């Protein structure tokens, strides 16, 4: 690898700026250049002193940005253009990721066949080993978490309606789904798939996310939860319904790679348990999310749907620690495939780290805006949150009248002023695409709507 110079540091910051990240931390630069902390900080100080960078903030909040009219040396700029041409929004690839990309560009015949290597998981020691650079994982955690103490899953619940659309559509698109974002929104309002496999895939994603939001705070990262997640995601998409949530017994192959997953069911079951056990011990939720994402896909424990299971599973630690969800917004399918192939064939996570970091930052920005748009929470809703969920269930699922539900819960106007009015307002706004927050199923909600919303 070439020696790290101020020009390379400046170019790395320029490339990050081109992706929309105008202000960067020293950790961002360390990750982008793979330089040592001391060397990067020395070059940053020199670039600030020469007026090519400006610095703001202090200590961990220190950020750097390009000064006006800074020229990037042509030799550096040209080298990067030749190595990794830009094709629109995407990660600023690190030198290691670019080098890996060159390896993956070799014809299949020039790459040695490989199979699953269990030491990738077994040699990993939670909180001592890191797949992501530790400083980067810690920075993403600081930036992505809710500041106030809240029950697990609070962040995901607050942005649930937007998350259902974003993650369902983005994850399905990576599987070749043809629906547009607008068509996905219309599908979720309609709630029925007919015989359209693409629609089934999207609705399954929606149901799986709703399942996670309800189940994760209660079950944590349990094996049964992962298996149920797969079953929900792949319902009506697998010819063999016995394969839903079940460790595969069939041989699988992956196109476009020399990687051959292990075909031994006992090994698949054992390694899935090991992956989940180690992920549960990881204290940093971003590292845990990344660990699950790459390892479930690498293992291929199920007959099909492993990558989509890994994407949703990556959100489990984020839910438990109340971090911004990861919705894989705007990820290019080619970039995603290369990130996975780097792990499959070389156990090299450099492209996966770059991609994960880039898309998580985009997710963070999106959901911060969503949270801000909600304004201050309604104190009445906060006080009676569980009671409201119970009342909604009684009306929609049990077909009680709103008045009867309020009376049985002891929340009449004289005892809980405003509660009944709030309940009636929520019943008026209830749809199949927002029913999960009240732990209502799509079927029950649609049946209640079809019955002309009795209350």
From TrEMBL:
Location of the Fido domain: 221-361
InterPro entries assigned to the protein according to its UniProt record, in alphabetical order: Fido, Fido-like_dom_sf, Fido_containing, WH-like_DNA-bd_sf
Annotated protein name in UniProt: Fido domain-containing protein
Recorded superkingdom: Bacteria
Residues that bind ATP: 304-311
Xref: SUPFAM superfamilies: Fic-like
PROSITE patterns: FIDO
One Gene Ontology MF term: ATP binding
Species whose genome carries this gene: Paraburkholderia solisilvae
Keywords: ATP-binding, Nucleotide-binding
């Amino acid at each position: 690898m070439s020696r790290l110079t101020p020009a390379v540091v400046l170019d790395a910051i320029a490339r990050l700026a081109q992706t929309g990240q105008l202000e960067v931390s020293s950790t961002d630069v360390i990750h982008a250049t793979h330089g040592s902390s001391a060397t990067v900080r020395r070059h940053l100080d020199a670039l600030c002193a020469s007026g090519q960078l400006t610095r703001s903030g202090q200590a961990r909040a220190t950020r750097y940005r390009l000064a006006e009219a800074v020229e990037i040396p042509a030799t550096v700029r040209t080298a990067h253009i030749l190595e990794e041409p830009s094709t629109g929004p995407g990660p600023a690839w690190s030198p290691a990721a670019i080098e890996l990309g060159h390896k993956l560009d070799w014809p299949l015949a020039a790459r040695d066949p490989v199979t699953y290597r269990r030491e990738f998981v077994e040699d990993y020691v939670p909180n001592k080993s890191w797949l992501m650079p530790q400083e980067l994982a810690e920075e993403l955690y600081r930036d992505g978490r809710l500041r106030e103490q809240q029950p697990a899953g609070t962040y995901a619940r607050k942005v649930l309606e937007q998350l259902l659309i974003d993650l369902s559509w983005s994850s399905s698109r990576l599987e070749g789904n043809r629906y547009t974002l607008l068509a996905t929104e219309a599908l979720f309002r309609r709630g029925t798939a007919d015989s359209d496999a693409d629609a089934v895939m999207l609705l399954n994603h929606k149901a799986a996310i709703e399942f996670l939001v309800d189940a994760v705070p209660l079950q944590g990262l349990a094996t049964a939860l992962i298996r149920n997640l797969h079953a929900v995601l792949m319902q009506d998409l697998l010819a063999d319904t016995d394969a839903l949530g079940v460790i595969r017994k069939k041989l699988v192959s992956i196109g476009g790679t020399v990687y051959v997953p292990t075909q031994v069911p006992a090994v698949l079951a054992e390694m899935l348990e090991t992956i989940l056990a180690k992920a549960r011990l990881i204290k940093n939720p971003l590292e845990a999310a990344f660990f699950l994402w790459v390892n479930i896909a690498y293992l291929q424990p199920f007959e099909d749907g492993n990558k989509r299971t890994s994407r949703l599973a990556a959100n489990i630690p984020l839910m438990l620690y109340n971090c911004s969800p990861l919705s894989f917004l705007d990820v290019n399918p080619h970039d995603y495939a290369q990130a996975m192939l780097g792990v499959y064939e070389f156990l090299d996570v450099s492209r996966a780290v770059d991609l994960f970091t880039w898309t998580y930052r985009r997710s963070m920005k999106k959901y911060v805006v969503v949270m801000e748009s909600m304004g201050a929470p309604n104190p009445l809703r906060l006080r009676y949150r569980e009671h409201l969920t119970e009342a909604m269930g009684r009306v929609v699922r049990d077909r009680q009248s709103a008045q009867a539900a309020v009376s049985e819960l002891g929340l009449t106007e004289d005892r809980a002023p405003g509660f009944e009015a709030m309940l009636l307002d929520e019943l008026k706004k209830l749809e199949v695409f927002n029913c999960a927050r009240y732990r209502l199923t799509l079927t029950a909600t649609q049946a209640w709507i079809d019955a002309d919303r009795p209350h």
